Amino acid sequence: MPSNISSFHRRHMLRAGGAGMLGLTLPKLLQADEQQGQGRTPGRAKSVIFLFQWGGPSHVDTFDMKPEAPDGYRSLYRTVSTSVPGMHVCEHLPETAKVMHRFAQLRTVHHTMNNHNSAGYTALTGVEPLVDDQRLRESLDLFPGYGSVVDAVAPGVSGMPTCVSYPYQIADGSVTPGQRASFLGKQHDPLFFKDDPNDRDFRLSQLSLPADISLDRLGSRRGLQQIINQQSRELDASSAARGLNAYYDRALEMLNSNRVREAFDLSSEPEMLREAYGRTTYGQSCLLARRLVEHGVKFVTVYFAPSIGGRSRTDGGWDTHGFDNTRMYEILPEWHLPVTDHTLPVLINDLSERGLLDETLVIWMGEFGRTPKINANISRDHWPKCYTVLMAGGGVQGGAVYGASDKYGAVPDRDPVTTGDLAATMYYAMGIDHNIELRDNLNRPLPIARGRAVTEIFS
């Protein structure tokens, strides 16, 4: 067992990799063939469920708690034992504790972006912007999101969209970049919708035609364009965007697809299972994610909340500085932690029971963690210098802990992981060579991930 990984399950670990077969130059194809010929094993993950915790969860109050830290640093929550001997998590995650043998933890993820929008972009792409600016906005100069990259280099062939994101478009002031395809063109945008999966009459509005419009009337591209522009303004169907024709063609294909409609039909799920996931937007979104990967979607992004939040006890994200007497230690046990604990273990167990977990990589992460030192509001502030990311399924070694933070949870003590490393690890799990190059709007070659895959966490 390598010295740089702690694991509570002793297994032989394979270093594996593979190459996506689309979006490659001839030299890259030859290189990929050569690597395969040398016995490199592609990843097991056919799909990814990316659970993005907008606002930044506190790593030292959830999964990397420091019970021996001094007052002012130590969490005000207690720890509880998990399904992995010797491992502990927050007392408010008792159900999640029971499935920690399914997860690997990367405890030293770090970057340099302290503002939500720039940190969010970094977490959603694996690439840091040139400046840490809260006003960072979508631009063709910025990198595309993970799902769009997958659609460009290894698109699905199931008749389903390659990537889907919902039920929010996240923002903090301006819309957070990294949620779309950027310079890859609109044809690689995720299928995005804001319909609430928890609504009793949930249906995907983009796939619903007005009563007086038949599919036959959509034979012309102009007819489809009018429908899409009327019903799907949130998809930003701009005539100036590259790939618009392919975008409309894809929309028409989905309107015609019974398979797509079936994948989004949550009403076909047993009521007991829907209740198990929790009758919240997030809970039903996670259930929908399972349905989508089951039907062949390769990359599903579920956003925990549309805003960074932090003051509400009933909704919003994880930005818990502590304002207006809304202290972090009071609101997290009322909203964020119970919703997480009600949903995450159910998703993992549901995937496992259906035989999908081994081929589905589940990632749980925010844009950063929280300060090790508790602030004057009895809360914690932004902290990108070290935080924890969870991964399960897709060949990940359950119970593994990669890297270690210092005694405060402030900085990596050993084996630091960049967001570029994290991106490379995710692509590795999918059997995609992270050295594949994309061409940006200036025709510059850019690798899809700037880092190395943390192969040590794979079994």
**Uncertain spans:** 7-40, 231-241
Number of strands: 20
The biggest sheet, with number of strands, parallel, antiparallel or mixed sense and barrel status, is: 10 strands, mixed
Report the helical percentage.
25-40%
**Count, helices:** 12
Apparent shape: globular
Tell me the radius of gyration.
Answer: 21 Å
Structure class: alpha/beta
How does this structure look, described?
- The protein is of the alpha/beta class.
- The protein has two domains: 371 residues, Alkaline Phosphatase, subunit A (3-Layer(aba) Sandwich), CATH 3.40.720; 59 residues, no CATH class.
- The protein contains twelve helices and 20 strands.
- Strands 1, 2, 5, 6, 9, 10, 11, 14, 15 and 18 form a ten-stranded mixed beta sheet that branches. The protein has a two-stranded antiparallel ribbon with strand order 3-4. A two-stranded antiparallel ribbon has the order 7-8.
- A hairpin with a 5-residue loop joins strand 19 and strand 20.
- Helix 5 crosses helix 6 and helix 9 packs parallel to helix 11.
- The longest helix has 18 residues.
Task: Give short descriptive properties of this protein.
10-stranded mixed sheet; Alkaline Phosphatase, subunit A; 12 helices; 20 strands; 2 domains; 15% strand
Secondary structure layout plus pairing:
Blueprint: E1 5-7, H1 26-37, E2 47-52, E3 79-81, E4 88-90, H2 94-97, E5 103-110, H3 116-125, H4 146-153, E6 163-166, E7 171-172, E8 174-175, E9 191-192, H5 221-231, H6 244-255, H7 258-263, H8 271-277, H9 281-294, E10 299-303, H10 328-331, H11 336-353, E11 360-365, E12 369-370, E13 382-383, E14 387-392, E15 400-402, E16 404-405, E17 412-414, E18 417-418, H12 419-429, E19 437-439, E20 445-447
Parallel strand pairs: 2-10, 2-11, 5-15, 5-18, 6-9, 6-10
Antiparallel strand pairs: 1-15, 3-4, 5-14, 7-8, 11-14, 12-13, 16-17, 19-20
Helix pairs in contact: 5-6, 9-11
